[in-house]
Structures are given as C-alpha cells and as structure tokens.
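Hi F.,

I've been meaning to write this up properly since the lab meeting, where we talked about keeping a consistent format for the predictions we share between groups. The idea is simple: the sequence comes first, exactly as it goes in, then the structure tokens exactly as they come out, then a line or two of notes. No screenshots and no reformatting. I'm using this chain as the first example so we have something concrete to point to.
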Amino acid sequence: MALLEVRDLHVGIEDCEILRGLDLTVNAGEVHAIMGPNGSGKSTLSHVISGKPGYQVSAGQILFKGEDLLAMEANERAANGVFLAFQYPVEISGVTTMNFLRAALNAQRKARAQKEFSTPDFIKRVREVAKSLNIPQGMLKRGLNVGFSGGEKKRNEILQMALLEPSLCILDEIDSGLDIDALRIVAGGINALRSPERAMIVITHYRRLLDYIVPDVVHVMSKGQVRKSGGKELALELEACGYAQFEDAA
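Output, unedited:
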C-alpha cells in the first residue's frame, strides 16, 4: 500500500527552482534511501514533506495515506504520523529533554483526540523506551541537546521517533558527524523501529550508513529529480563511479 506518493513536484525558494518534477512512491513497511550530490534537492524534499515554511510549491502534489499533505499545516502532518529527524538538531537551554518529550507526546495525543499521559505514566513510558534503545537515563534530565555530542543528539532524535510512533520517518543525513561506534548505535535504534506499518526515508551521502540500515530501494537524485532507482547494489555503484554520470544526464 502506498503510504507516500509524490507526483511531479516542483518546488523553489524565491526565484530558484530546486525540485523539478520529482516523483516518488514509498509503501508501508519499506525503507527508501535517497542519495545524491550536494544541491540535488534531498533536504528540500524532506523539508517540504514535513511542512517547513519558506518553500513555494508551483506544481505537483504529495499524498500521504491518500490525503493531500500540502493542505495540512506542519503540526497536522506531525499528528498524522510524519516525523523528520534533523541533520543538525537544535539546542534548547532551559528545557529538559524529559519535559520536551512530554510536551511533544501529549500535544500529538491531544491532536488525535487521545487521553494525555499523566506524569507517572509518561515517566514509566519514556524510561522503558530509553532503556530499549540503550539511552542513559541521565540524558533525559539534561537540557535538550545542550552539551550533547553528535551521537547523543542523533540518539535523542531516535528516542523522539520511538515515543511518537510515526507512520513515516524521514532521516535527513542522520549519519552526519557520527563516528563508527555512534553510527552503529544510531542505526541499531532505527532498525529496532522498522515495522510493516512504518515507512522510512533515509537521506545520506555515503554508503556506510546503508551497511547498517539495509534499504529496500535506493534512489539517486540529481538537479531536482530522481534519476535512477534500484536495490542496495545501486549504492555500491555510486561508491565506485560517483555521481558524475547522473549530473551529466541531468
């Protein structure tokens, strides 16, 4: 079943067109990797899907669970199950990770007409999830991402994803700035969240992440379009030959 359908999408900022007729279909239960050179539109796609302001959609559509995603505000998309893990998570001093997580989770539940978690129930839930992802309890008491290492910031993103239980997870260069040990930990957390009901879009420059998160489909983007799609062997081809062939074709 198609969870996400992007059809002939044209997107720009001011007078610069970035996405030029992009098509993409992601089914429930699938993991799609999107690779491509800088400036190809990978992050723009993730931002437009999640509802970041500042982009102009001039043509095309995005369907999520069969509904018009572009007609929804960013908070409505989140409540409906869209989650974006940032390449560079922001630091918010004065707000503990625990308080942030509780506010986010209860806001989502309220939007879905579900009962909000009481403090004891929430603490029990977040501790269980953190333990399952090997996240130290001490991280929960610290300011959100304040003083966190790159690996800790990315693990905190995975903790948010696990608590919010989205239908579509978009991971924008989540391997950026991670050493090999942190990469294994983060990838393990992501793999633990794979399910038949959940789809993931993994955006990356490098094949090494795909050694740990094995995708069902790999897409190569160049100059605002998907130029080629294939299996995980396509990532090996990219490592051997680079992106030049797709840049030339575009």
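Notes:
The mean pLDDT is 91.
The CA atoms of residues 12 and 18 lie 5 Å apart.

If this format works for you, I'll send the rest the same way.

G.
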